[in-house]
Amino acid sequence: xxxxxxxxxxxxxxxxxxxxxxxxxxxxxxxxxxxxxxxxxxxxxxxxxxxxxxxxxxxxxxxxxxxxxxxxxxxxxxxxxxxxxxxxxxxxxxxxxxxxxxxxxxxxxxxxxxxxxxxxxxxxxxxxxxxxxxxxxxxxxxxxxxxxxxxxxxxxxxxxxxxxxxxxxxxxxxxxxxxxxxxxxxxxxxxxxxxxxxxxxxxxxxxxxxxxxxxxxxxxxxxxxxxxxxxxxxxxxxxxxxxxxxxxxxxxxxxxxxxxxxxxxxxxxxxxxxxxxxxxxxxxxxxxxxxxxxxxxxxxxxxxxxxxxxxxxxxxxxxxxxxxxxxxxxxxxxxxxxxxxxxxxxxxxxxxxxxxxxxxxxxxxxxxxxxxxxxxxxxxxxxxxxxxxxxxxxxxxxxxxxxxxxxxxxxxxxxxxxxxxxxxxxx
Length: 427
Fold this sequence. Notes:
Number of strands: 21
CATH architecture of the largest domain: 3-Layer(bba) Sandwich
Distance between the termini: 32 Å
Number of domains: 2
Helix content: 25-40%
Shape: globular
CATH superfamily of the largest domain: FAD/NAD(P)-binding domain
Keywords: FAD, Flavoprotein, Monooxygenase, NADP, Oxidoreductase
Largest sheet: 5 strands, parallel
InterPro entries: FAD/NAD-bd_sf, Lys/Orn_oxygenase
Protein name: Lysine/ornithine N-monooxygenase
CATH topology of the largest domain: FAD/NAD(P)-binding domain
Family: Belongs to the lysine N(6)-hydroxylase/L-ornithine N(5)-oxygenase family.
Number of helices: 14
Pfam family, one: Lys_Orn_oxgnase
């Protein structure tokens, strides 16, 4: 069986950036053979939230390459030039392209590597290949859409599988309910609910806010309860000094802190990334409720400082028991549809690597996103987007993707094993 120098699991922005960094590095160094395996049938970036009028929250300069190599032919500017839209984009006078356009940019970049990506296969297991008492290679097992299992060998592995929708505990028994959807699947599922008269949106972040405005703008729009534990919708802090925590240089700083200080830093800046819609979107929502008051309507409700105490499914929808945290009063509200804009959890890599448990231990990573392994384990395994607790809030975002991919490629070429040092942190 052919042995690949590198197999990448997933082909979203992080591993597309890695493929680009590999290609650009190989113009100056010994080539590494690579293969990427993606479970989607074709490239798509958060397709469930490709809403009309939704824009990026970070600058187009934080694309797949620019912060690592401004001269790269894979930049967003190069994409615009190739598509014949560079002058028109300049005339928009914005740093923030639509989400539709950025998705198209990512698809354009991915298309350059169609010969190195296998779509429609889901990796479900990674096993050690031993020679004597040494682990020399990895056996990557995947399953295609027809259920056929494929196996491939690799000297190194990069895991970039993104997050999975976070379902609050009270809603987990309703995972299969047709009356509950997660924002991750919103655009695919909402068309099935055209007759919904009353909808609950749970969450206080960008996705919740975008879905509220999207539903409000629908023909025959439903009545919406916007439910959150917070006292107010808080805008993202995108001021210059706060934004510096997303710079590549800040990764060195946060990684070098002890565990307690690192946790404090992440907590301090938590609202730069979580539960923080754009200010312009918050103003739109405020204006919507203001106009409702002007008209004497009460179709939508903003239920601040409310938490869900109980969930009960009926044949016609879902009944939520809501507790007002200001006065302690509880009441029941019935909905045809509940939308969970409750974010993501990032544990998928643990399940995929479970077969290596005896070699990777607590899954600690070094500064270069590389797992610590036992002395007899030769392959290098890197994680992309699963190191927030050790590398900072930027780890799950596009902000450091370009630079991180360059660091991983350099580490791959150097081929050094991850040292067993106290600085390593569990992810």
